[in-house]
Amino acid sequence: MRAVVLSHCFADPEHRQKLKELAALGWSLTVAVPSGKAGTDGALRLVPIGTAGDPEAPATLRWNPRTIRRLLTDVRPALVYAEEEPGTHGAYVAVREGHRLGIPGVVYARTSLPVTRSLFERRRYAHTLRLAAGAVGINASATGLLRQTAPDLATLVVPQTGVTAPTSPQRLPHDGLTMAFVGRLVPERGADRLLRACGQLMGPWTLSLVGTGPEQVALEDLAQRLGLASRLRWLGALSREQVTALWPEIDCLVVPSRATPDWVESWSPVLVDAMAHGVASVVSAEGALPEVVREGGVVFADDEELLVALQQLLTDPDRRRALGDAGRRRVLEHYQDASLARALDGFWRSVVAARTPVGT
Predict the structure, then answer these.
(1) How far apart are the first and last CA of the chain?
(2) Cβ distance 233 to 208 under 8 Å?
(3) Distances in Å between the alpha carbon of 326 and those of 288, 296, 330, 343?
(4) What angle, rounded to 10 degrees, do the helices at 269-276 and 317-334 form?
(5) β-bridge partners, 189
(6) How confident is the model at residue 359 (pLDDT cuts 50, 70, 90)?
(7) Alpha carbon distance 203, 41 (integer Å)
(8) Residue 43's CB: how many other CB atoms inside 10 A?
(9) Closest Cα to residue 82, out of 21, 34, 148?
(10) What is the dihedral of CA 233, 238, 241, 244, to 10 degrees?
(11) How far apart are CA 85 and CA 68, in angstroms?
């Protein structure tokens, strides 16, 4: 079955593994990207589409409608999938041109909070969803927002990118509870609430903090006042590979974020990577991370629950190992690229079947 996939994300070869897994499931994929040269990447056919706008702000790009129409006419796919927000020009043009040719369109949403849009943007957003045959969201909040505009729209929740889980995670022996915080040092990331909880823990523990930001000095002062300095490692900004190299010595990743009117945790590649390596997770109930970890982590609603969760992990090594194992199983079942591809494959086929007249 043929499909045309349009997204700025797939201009980067590192983001195409999900598509290659879909090709292995029987899809013949033509991938429209805003830059590069025409060619192939394994089973994928790559087609650059002319765009106008700032490449550093891909949501603002204007895709060439005539080129997209010609591509859809030439390929005649069973489905067009725009892995772009429904309010963007790329998603609108892909779905509109597909609709004109009788090709069902699916869009992708990461937006997890209500957004203030101009009148023109609201109309384009609503028009895109009216024409779309389905939508994929990064979390339940994202798909819920879509259904406020299009209540009958078929939806699927699946993250945008998968993770590669190690075959056999390594664990280094150590004493006590070793914890990590990874994120920008800003109030909404909640590092201060983690430090305050650590200040009340009874027993041996250490905390590695990865990241920089405007709150670092204030957080270092807080750690001094709480008498925690000797148990903390301030590692600064690290690459993804350097963060991954930390996991063998970490028992627990803590994500103590706070939702604000303008921001919420919608997805966390770092969290899923830690889970893939058998690291137990403790996450705030605010945002989408509880639906990410489920049985593979501990969810806390307030600072007291955070303290209780950390104290239990400190005193019960078997519990943190069990949580780490559960989190890893969840990643293997749901968050590898092959898992994402299977979910998309089933959804795409259901969308195509719903638009195909009986008997054809």
Answers:
(1) 15
(2) yes
(3) 18, 5, 6, 21
(4) 110
(5) none
(6) very low
(7) 53
(8) 13
(9) 34
(10) 30
(11) 17
What are the start-end ranges of the H helices in the chain? Answer: 17-24, 65-75, 89-100, 119-131, 140-149, 191-198, 216-226, 240-246, 269-276, 289-293, 303-315, 317-334, 337-355
Per the DSSP assignment, residues forming a β-bridge with 298 are 282
Name the residue among 332, 285, 325 with its Cα closest to residue 162: 332
* Structure-block tokens of residue 123: 């109309």
Q: Supply the pTM of this predicted model.
A: 0.93
Q: 3-class DSSP state for residue 238?
A: coil
- DSSP per-residue string spanning 73-95: HHH--SEEEE-S-TTSHHHHHHH
Helix 303-315 × helix 317-334 angle, to 10°: 110
Q: At which residue do the structure tokens 């201009």 appear?
A: 11
pLDDT in tens, 112-151: 999 999 999 999 999 999 999 999 999 999 999 999 999 9
Q: Quickly count: other Cβ atoms within 10 Å of residue 21's Cβ.
A: 20
Partners of 137 in the beta sheet? 109, 157
DSSP annotation string for 18-60 = HHHHHHHTT-EEEEEESSS-SEEETTEEEEE--EES-TTSGGG
C-beta pairs of 10-17 under 8 Å, 24+ apart in sequence:
10/83, 11/35, 11/36, 13/41, 15/161, 16/41, 16/44, 17/162, 17/337
